[in-house]
Amino acid sequence: MQVPRYDRNSVEKDLPNELLTSTFRYLNARDLFRSFHNLNERFNDLIQSFQYLQLSYHMKVPVNLKSNDELFSFYVYTLIVDEWIDFNPKHFPNVRRLKLKSPIPKVLGLLKGNIMPHLEHLSVLYKYTMYEINLLHNEIFSNRFPKLYSCELHGQEGLLTIQQSEHSPMMRILKTDLIDLMIYEIILRTCPNLSFLKFSMQSSNDTSTNIFQHINLKRMVINLTKSDWSDDDHTLSTFLSYVQNLHQLDIHRRNYSHNILDYVQYCDWLKSIINHRLPCLRIFKFYFHISSDEQLRIIFHENLLKQIQSDFSNVHTEQEYQAQLIICRESI
User: Fold this and answer.
1) Backbone dihedral region of 80: left (phi > 0), alpha (psi from -120 to 50 degrees) or beta?
2) d(CA 129, CA 222)
3) Using CA atoms, how far apart are residues 203 and 41, in angstroms rounded to an integer?
4) Pick the CATH number of 215-332 from 3.40.50, 2.60.40, 1.20.120, 2.40.50
5) Within a 13 Å sphere around the CA of 312, how many CA atoms are in the beta-carbon half?
6) What is the pLDDT of residues 272-286, one digit of tens each?
7) Contacts of 55 (CB under 8 A, 6+ apart)
8) CB 174, CB 191: distance < 8 Å
9) Residue limits of the F-box domain (predicted)?
10) In terms of Cα–Cα distance, which of 282, 291, 273, 285 is closest to 319?
11) What's the half-sphere exposure (Cβ side, CA atoms, 13 Å) at 126?
């Protein structure tokens, strides 16, 4: 019996382009270009169409781009960069999604709208305060990334500095950490089409004499950081006064104070604030985080938690919105 001779060219011709491109999606972008670019005319044609494949690249070590690498970087749509990696953003002009984990100041300083004009989703986690992060804030909230649709900015001090701002009409989703009332106002004025906002609220005695209505914000997630819940209520009411068209509100609160039990037993679980500020609300979720502190764990035993659930349901019964209490047990 004669064994058929393997013909690489024949096998290659028999494979449809759709199968090849589907397979290429699972390969590392840099290895893909190194392996197949200039292999033959057909693969070169496929590579030239990779702008539709949205190639992803995870940069774990510093990269010196040259020859085929420069070509591959042009087609990277999703770029994830690990901590303290030195690279030049200008080598990735077509990136749509960018995730930076603890970037070095040099990289933040080079991150400009004219360098990545197609950027749609940006995520930056920074552990240290640096001048360059303030420059990035100004770029983001001055519409210098004209296609930026969603943004995550997470740092120890939160988003407490925006020195320059202009309308950024494309921004729809913003997730960040600590913000005060002044920054909150800037965000709402700068992003008129914002529909989702997640942040940690900075309590303060500041008040606004020029409250305006942001009509497009539909969902808000707020992390309340004060251990004394009553301190947050006035500030929270002021924040919510800007978003009367809100459809869903998620509140995260923690019980780090040993006096919290007295407040919990007699609170209205924000019912009065909601009725006063949010006439269009449809969904209200309250995340009650139980601390790992041993004394508090003893105080909040199972029977008490059941009673709290019942009290919450009774407070929000017969309201126009649906209310839910979610008890979250924090790990030790």
Assistant:
1) beta
2) 23
3) 63
4) 3.40.50
5) 21
6) 999 999 999 999 999
7) 29, 32, 72, 75, 76, 77, 78
8) yes
9) 9-55
10) 282
11) 24
The CA distance from 35 to 301, in Å, is 61
Ranges assigned E (strand) in the chain: 55-59, 76-81, 97-101, 121-126, 150-155, 173-179, 196-201, 219-224, 248-254, 283-290, 322-329
Number of Cβ within 10 Å of residue 330's Cβ equals: 13
Stated length of the chain: 332
Contact 200, 158 (CB under 8 A): yes
| 181-190 vs 229-240: helix crossing angle, rounded to 10 | 20
Rounded Cα distance between 267 and 312, Å, is 9
Sign of the torsion formed by the C-alpha atoms of 155, 156, 160 and 161:
negative
Q: Measured between alpha carbons, how far is 270 from 116 in angstroms, rounded to an integer? A: 43
Residue 179 pairs in a beta bridge with 201
- At 37-91, the pLDDT tens digits run 778 888 878 776 766 666 788 899 888 787 667 778 888 899 999 999 999 999 9
The domain limits of the chain are 215-332
Residue 119 has pLDDT above 60, yes or no: yes
DSSP assignment of 70-136: HHHHHTEEEEEE-TT----GGG-TT-SEEEEES--HHHHHH--TTTSTT--EEEEEESS--HHHHHH
For the cut 90, the answer to whether the pLDDT of residue 270 exceeds it is yes
Phi, psi of 75 (to 5 degrees): -100, 5
Rounded distance, CA 190 to CA 144, Å?
12
The predicted model scores a pTM of 0.86
